[in-house]
Design goal:
Layout (H helix, E strand, L loop, with lengths): L4 E5 L16 E2 L2 E2 H8 L6 E4 L9 E4 L8 H9 L8 E6 L7 H10 L6 E5 L5 E9 H17 L25 H5 L4 E5 L14 H11 L1
Parallel strand pairs: 1-4, 1-6, 4-5, 7-9
Antiparallel strand pairs: 2-3, 6-8, 7-8
């Protein structure tokens, strides 16, 4: 598969790092978000979802609604910018400093007919949905379905609705889980068998960053 877009999610609160701008932390001399964006340098467009700030040339920056609303809200913000002609989107966390272009290529190669997406699984078989590639139309339909479901609320009670910064607008995807988003999609689970460290390794703590530094040498 040749044509694909990339949406990189960089809006997390990094509570286990004291609230720092985690994707700006460097590994191997480069901010983690730039390492992730470099791994999808051949994607078009490339969209970074997170706080306003500098970004590599050609990368569009947008904020999720509401700010800090979580990965599903951020994914929705990025996907909303993609045209209907986009076949596939790589959906990636910005704290994956070990992600490489070959690792992304493996996901694209594993996205066979009959699957809506492909994502890596870790050594314990757990899905890493923010290290995956997804067919745009099934993903967009899943976002729409989950937004409607959460806005309407389950039978017998509603869900909390979060207003965006402009006021008055409900953001039903705020706080939604990736598991709920992908529940109805046909997902190909891909173990990492390539050379080098696991591309799905994310950095949630200072110790994770130190481990990534050692691998990146």
């Amino acid at each position: 598969m040749d044509a694909y877009a990339a949406v990189v999610l960089a809006g997390g609160a990094a509570r286990r790092m004291g609230g720092v701008d985690k994707p700006a932390r460097t590994v191997g001399g480069l901010p983690m978000r730039e390492r992730v964006l470099a791994a999808v340098a051949d994607a078009a467009p490339r969209i970074l979802v997170g706080p306003p700030g500098p970004a590599p040339a050609g990368v569009r920056v947008i904020r999720e609604e509401p700010p800090g609303g979580g990965p599903v809200a951020a994914a929705a913000a990025g996907v909303a910018l993609l045209g209907p002609g986009t076949p596939v989107v790589a959906l990636l966390a910005a704290d994956l400093p070990l992600l490489t272009r070959p690792a992304v290529g493996e996901l694209l190669a594993q996205l066979h007919a009959g699957h809506d997406g492909a994502c890596y699984v870790d050594g314990a078989g757990r899905r890493q949905p923010l290290c995956g590639v997804w067919r745009l139309e099934p993903l967009r339909a899943a976002l729409d379905h989950l937004a409607t479901e959460r806005a309407d609320g389950p039978a017998g009670g509603g869900v909390e609705r979060v207003d965006g910064p402009a006021g008055g607008g409900a953001a039903p995807l705020a706080g939604a889980s990736m598991r709920a988003l992908l529940a109805g999609l046909r997902v190909r689970e891909v173990p990492w068998v390539g050379a080098g460290p696991p591309p799905w390794f994310d950095c949630d703590t200072d110790e994770d960053v130190r481990r990534a530094e050692e691998w990146a040498r």
